[in-house]
Design brief:
Radius of gyration: 21 Å
Structural class: mainly alpha
Largest sheet: none
Bound molecules: 4-fluoro-L-phenylalanine
Number of strands: 0
């Protein structure tokens, strides 16, 4: 199959950042931080981002650029010359992508619901009741499923249109606007009465607040938010041009994504601590705090409307990244046309979205270890499965991809420092990453008892 290339280098950044920036930063980061006690966890998350997720992101881009294939095909090719069975790593990545895409679609549906509510408030009465929209969602599984379906349908149509037309155009239009809006909102949020408490909560590390699972949660979240472990960056890497320098690209994506998460914390925590929302530490945190904040602002409905539209477009960019990877793998494996592959993937995701959609209504009584199905699914996929896959990827990049390929795509002869960096990267991938992930999994197992 002929591979498409990014029209411009900027196009690659927009798509990679568009895939990385999403609900993970705005929706998941604040509630995971709240659950793990604040500043010490933020520090751990930043550390894991640079020591584990970012080196793996670079590894994925190298694998994509050197093989010009998507992850499954690339692992099949690599294992031909090795004694290890590497394709199971590719398969796990794809399985994870499918599950995440469906559950991510449900949360994207929540965002869409708020877009509709703010639009209505904007057009009709300029008034919106605070508790209704979230409660309405939590009570109705059908509504959640319908919204998730609409979202997946949008994504399938865009993916079907192909990489240059689809991805680049959508994402490029929305990123800068979202960044600007966030800056304005963070300024407003930091002028709330409890903002100094919030700053202390986010930046003052109190290590006694960490639990045995915190390391695993930090690794899982760091990988999730950088879209590492899904094969998505392998696919994006396979579209890169020959002269693009991978470590620089990986580093820029990492820094942008990490900054956005910190911004999200600075936006949400002053509102949470100043407001009447109480102690929300579950997946509804963002939706419980923000609407209330918007309604207290001058022109708040307009701000709320703009914010949820931007958040929705970010969710769209991220889901398209996920769909893109699944579709390109199905296309590579089954040799089906892009249209067919897109519809097959859409149908599977829709079927998988049923259970998380009903997790707060029809299946609301099903609780495991005190948590809903949705929370357990999130924890299983991101805190457990993703670190295991990251372990597999570190093996793939250190034993599967040849040393020559790694060096060729990592080292830039015009930059002396890239030789030294390459040495560090190899040590991280081969030794540090497997050891730290191994320890984190053991700690999480202890925490179960
Ligand atoms: N990185 C995205 C986020 O933070 O919302 C989530 C994600 C998107 C994960 C695309 C994986 C992926 F392929």
């Amino acid at each position: 199959l002929k591979r498409a290339y990014w029209n411009t280098r900027f196009g690659f950044y927009l798509a990679a950042i568009g895939s990385a920036v999403g609900l993970g930063n705005l929706w998941r980061f604040p509630y995971v931080v709240a659950n793990n006690g604040g500043g010490a966890f933020v520090l751990l998350y930043i550390l894991m981002t640079f020591l584990i997720a970012s080196p793996l992101l670079i590894g994925e881009l190298i694998l994509g650029k050197s093989s010009r294939k998507s992850i499954l095909a690339a692992t099949f090719t690599l294992e031909k010359s090795k004694k290890y069975k590497l394709h199971w790593i590719g398969r796990l990545c794809l399985l994870l992508s499918l599950f995440i895409a469906s559950y991510y679609a449900v949360i994207s549906g929540w965002v869409l619901h708020f877009v509709v509510h703010f639009t209505r408030a904007f057009i009709q009465t300029n008034h919106m009741s605070l508790s209704d929209p979230m409660q309405m969602l939590l009570n109705s599984g059908w509504l959640q499923l319908a919204l998730a379906s609409v979202h997946l349908l949008f994504c399938a149509v865009i993916t079907y249109k192909g990489v240059e037309d689809g991805l680049e155009k959508w994402i490029s239009n929305m990123m800068p606007i979202f960044g600007l809006l966030l800056v304005v909102l963070v300024f407003r949020s930091l002028s709330l009465p409890k903002s100094s408490d919030a700053l202390k909560f986010v930046f003052y590390p109190d290590f006694t607040k960490l639990s045995l699972s915190s390391l695993g949660h930090a690794i899982g979240h760091a990988c999730f938010t950088l879209s590492v472990g899904f094969g998505v960056m392998v696919t994006f890497g396979s579209y890169l041009q020959e002269n693009d320098h991978i470590p620089t690209a990986g580093f820029r994506v990492t820094v942008t994504d990490c900054l956005l998460s910190l911004f999200a914390g600075l936006l949400v925590f002053p509102i949470m601590l100043s407001g009447a929302t109480g102690d929300v530490k579950d997946p509804t945190l963002l939706f419980a705090t923000l609407p209330q904040f918007f309604l207290g602002l001058p022109n708040g409905i307009l701000f709320g409307w703009a914010f949820f539209i931007c958040l929705y477009l970010a969710a769209l960019g991220a889901t398209i990244g996920l769909m893109e990877v699944i579709v390109s793998n199905v296309q590579d494996q089954l040799r089906t046309p892009r249209s067919w592959s897109s519809w097959i993937v859409l149908s599977i995701c829709l079927a998988l979205a049923v259970v998380p959609s009903f997790s707060s209504s029809f299946l609301g009584n099903v609780r495991v270890r005190g948590n809903s199905i949705m929370e357990n699914l999130d924890s299983f996929l991101i805190n457990w499965m993703l670190p295991v896959i990251a372990l597999g990827l570190s093996f793939l990049f250190s034993r599967g991809v040849s040393a020559a390929d790694n060096e060729k795509h990592f080292v830039d002869p015009n930059r002396a420092e890239s030789v030294a960096l390459f040495g560090h990267w190899k040590v991280l991938i081969r030794y540090l990453i497997p050891i730290v992930i191994g320890i984190s999994l053991l700690l999480q197992i202890f925490a179960l008892f």
